[in-house]
């Protein structure tokens, strides 16, 4: 399958949270393939180092616990020092571990939000001054179709992703005068190694196929295609939106 090329992205510095595996790693590789300089963070140090080594030039990685706001801010500053000011930010990091709401402690609830919501705000406010000084930028907050559907056993994740959608609108309105665009990107059920290991069964996939208009599987590249578009000048007048890529869930 041929993929779109966005010449205006070449040479820009992109920062991705949760970029060592899954959809995040696909973001890192695809932006790098557009000629971008890509910094990324993850807790998975071995995987992150391997990906950075694979990509070589224009790739920067640091192990980072994104629930540590100071560490995340320092990582963004470090990437900017190494690669140049960040003008594209992809807030991708998340944890969709299932849980029963009635059995979830307040501490566990707050830990879930600390992974699924807080880093988007911390990273955005850290990158915004660079984007403003550069004359503009693009922030892509990875949400989820589940924020709209509200499935059971994912209360913390669903609440965080709903907040991501609202945060995107609020920041888009506030930072629009500085030509900083902020959009949410909501994937459907994307087939990653984690999904294959934990939740993708023939029965679950058959049920999913009944709910969507397009019967093919969604893959990380399908989400990365949308992220590249939203980051590029082709989307220069698109902000405060939620782009859903879910195979047309009915």
Q: For this structure, what is the CATH class? A: Alpha Beta
Determine the CATH superfamily: NAD(P)-binding Rossmann-like Domain
What is the β-strand count? 7
Write the CATH architecture name.
3-Layer(aba) Sandwich
Q: What is Rg?
A: 17 Å
Number of H- or I-type helical stretches: 10
Q: Which oligomeric form is depicted?
A: single chain
N-to-C terminal Cα separation, in Å?
A: 26 Å
Percent helix range: 40-55%
Secondary structural class: alpha/beta
Shape: globular
Characterization of this structure:
By secondary structure, this protein is an alpha/beta fold. It has a single domain (10-245), classed as Rossmann fold. Helices cover 48% and strands 16% of the residues. The protein is built from 10 helices and 7 strands. The protein has a 7-stranded parallel sheet with strand order 3-2-1-4-5-6-7, sandwiched between helices. Helix 2 (45-55) links the parallel strand 2 (37-42) and strand 3. Helix 1 crosses helix 10, helix 3 packs parallel to helix 5 and helix 4 packs across helix 7 (155-175). The longest helix has 21 residues, at 155-175. The chain is globular, with a radius of gyration of 17 Å.
């Amino acid at each position: 399958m041929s993929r779109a090329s966005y010449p205006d992205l070449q040479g820009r510095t992109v920062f991705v949270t949760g970029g060592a595996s899954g959809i995040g790693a696909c973001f890192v590789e695809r932006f790098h393939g557009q000629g971008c300089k890509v910094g990324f963070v993850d807790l998975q140090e071995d995987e992150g180092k391997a990906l950075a080594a694979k990509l070589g030039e224009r790739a920067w990685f640091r192990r980072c616990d994104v629930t540590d706001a100071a560490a995340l801010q320092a990582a963004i500053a470090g990437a900017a020092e190494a690669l140049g000011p960040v003008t594209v930010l992809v807030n991708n990091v998340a944890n969709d571990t299932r849980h029963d709401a009635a059995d979830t402690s307040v501490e566990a609830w707050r830990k879930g939000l600390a992974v699924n919501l807080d880093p988007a705000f911390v990273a955005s406010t850290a990158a915004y001054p660079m984007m403003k000084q550069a004359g503009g930028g693009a922030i892509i907050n990875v949400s989820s179709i589940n924020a709209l559907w509200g499935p059971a056993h994912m209360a913390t994740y669903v609440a965080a992703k709903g907040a991501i959608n609202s945060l995107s609108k609020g920041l888009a309105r506030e930072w629009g005068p500085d030509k900083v665009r902020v959009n949410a990107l909501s994937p459907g059920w994307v087939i990653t190694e984690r999904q294959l290991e934990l939740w993708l069964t023939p029965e679950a996939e058959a049920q999913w196929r009944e709910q969507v208009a397009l019967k093919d599987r969604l893959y990380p590249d399908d989400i990365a295609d949308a992220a590249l578009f939203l980051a590029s000048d082709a989307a220069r007048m698109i902000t405060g939106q939620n782009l859903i890529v879910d195979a047309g869930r009915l």
